[in-house]
Amino acid sequence: MSYVLDIALTHLRSRVRQTVVGVMGVATGVGFSIMMAALMEGSQADFIRQLVDSLPHISVSDETRNPPRQPAETRYDVVQIDGLRTPVVRPGIKNPMAIMASIESWVPGAIAPSVQAKAVIRYAGRDTATSFTGLDPKREQKVSKLSTQMRQGSLDALYKATNALILGDGLAKKIGARVGNTVAIVSGAGRTLDCTIVGIAHTGVAQIDDAS
User: Fold this and answer.
1) Residue 1 pLDDT exceeds 60
2) DSSP character at residue 106
3) Cβ distance 124 to 176 under 8 Å?
4) pTM here?
5) In whole angstroms, what is the distance from residue 7 CA to residue 11 CA?
């Protein structure tokens, strides 16, 4: 046995209490560091999984449309136009079914159409601004896990009622609505549509559960 090792063992044996406390302190610190690293790794993996399950991998949307150039703008370098009324163009993808068929012919995976809009949901005297997504339940089951994220009702229940609606659990709790209740949807143009809640979902993403 080497001289240095003999000295170390002698001090360890003569100071058992200090040795145990030192070893336990180092072990506790290392164990706590490993636990925090594992917790952060697990939280990050769970967050990524929730995003992947709740949001599409690829989104195809309509292009940003600018007002058409006026004849004066093409003729002169500097033009000021006041009170111009451009034609109202309804937003959306032109020929969506043909585009979907074209994408399905060469892109692997599943495709589901959706329509997004912002409106106000009115229930029990409360008005809450929110966003809505119109979808095809059969196709949606192929591209997302919404059917497994239902807390009440089912995705197929959208077929069973007129103007059926599925709310995020955070939004449902905020307005105090339950499955079977009727809510009013008010558009930006002031049009009102009565909808029946047929399901409540929890995706794990607060931006979706609390505002859609």
Assistant:
1) no
2) T
3) yes
4) 0.64
5) 6
